[in-house]
Amino acid sequence: MKKFLIMFWCSVVTLPVMAQVGITYHNAYDNFLGVNYEFKNGLIPEARLHTNRYMDDMDLEIALNFLVLKKEEFQFYVGLGMLAEVKDGDGLVAVLPVGLNFYPFTRKNFGFHLEAAPLIDGEGPPYFRTSWGIRYRFSRN
Questions:
Q1: Are 45 and 24 in contact (CB under 8 A)?
Q2: Residue 4 CB contacts under 8 Å (≥ 6 apart), including other chains
Q3: CA 82, 83, 84, 89 torsion: positive or negative?
């Protein structure tokens, strides 16, 4: 499973840079990096790799976010995702992200984000994750 997740992450990271490809950094109790693609219809799939860990203990998260509100300076999104906890063997955890992206500068490539997400693993009560961070879009239409 670890090899599959590492190969999947490497293939996502090496995708050719096209319009609306972006990267994110989430600062939380468990920091993570993301690579996403923003479609014109408001769909934003994102692959996230949890960092601050040893290589054999990295978790992979896939989130499918949808823009509910899209303005020039900010975006509001909701989503659904899965977190694969590799080393602990806990399996899959459902993730329900809700967030805001802010683009305060003249060029709308660089911005900030806030996200909150309940995580549900089916074994215990859901727990709540919040994060904030930076977002960069390589190209803007």
A1: no
A2: none
A3: negative
pLDDT of the residue at 87: 62
Q: How many CB atoms lie within 10 A of CB 74?
A: 15
Structure tokens at 76: 């509001």
CA distances from 83 to 92, 119, 122 (A): 6, 9, 13
pLDDT mean for each 10 residues of the chain (141 residues): 51 50 91 92 93 73 96 95 76 93 93 95 85 88 50
Which tokens sit at 141? Answer: 């239409």
**Token pair 């994102």 is at which residue?**
46
